[in-house]
Amino acid sequence: MNEKLDAWTVETVDLTARVAAALGTATPSPERELLEELRALRRELAELRATTALLGDEVARLRLAAATPRRIVPFGPAEGLARLS
Amino acid sequence: MDEDDALMERAKEGDAEAFDAIVRRHQDRLQRFATRMAFGDAARGADVAVGAFLRLWEARGTYRPQGRLGAWLLRAAYRLVVDEARRARTAQTLAEPVAEPPHLRIERTALAQAVRDAVGALPEGQRAVLVLSHYEGLSGEAIAEILDVPPGTVASRKSHALKTLRRRLAAWEDPR
User: Fold this and answer.
1) How far is A28 from chain B, CA to nearest CA, in Å?
2) How far is CA B88 from its chain centroid?
């Protein structure tokens, strides 16, 4: 008889989320916490990239500002020059 | 004080994680019991188990630590099942074995189906005793406490239940 009765098995599921939701005491699951951390990291990474781009622009601007201007002026003033013809 | 009672003490203070741990510790047994009491309806069994946990949460302020939290929850689940059956009878819709989804039905063996139907056809009191004794391995005293009946009644119900099941399952060969 016992073996016959054992043929009837029952599957169970995890009820923790349902109970917590019903009680209004839901706590973040580890997966959700991890996901939030990943999102925060992605936000920080995007901010770092933006900051790096700004710094790069600033460095380039400073380099240009510090360089000695060397300009060739092909059409400068003509005073003092001897005419060849 | 056992671990359940220690967790309940924390839950009384509003510690949701402690109550979560209680749910994890007892949910499987509660679901198995409630599902078998609900004619194998797993969804209904889960609902009853959740209902029992909600009752425990509501009663946490008056819960007395006696090392019997498991029995407390099973008793709550049993009362939920009985109350629902009573309401169903009042509404002239006496609970019948529910139709399972096809995919579940296919997975079950014919014997399992026969056992489910035979256990489901037992009167509530006998069904509860059989499920708690055979499937959950509880002693007669523990079952008496859960169902709030004398130990002699438990023994009597179990005897009647087994006699009925033997008759209904007589056509089945013992599995080898």
Assistant:
1) 11
2) 18
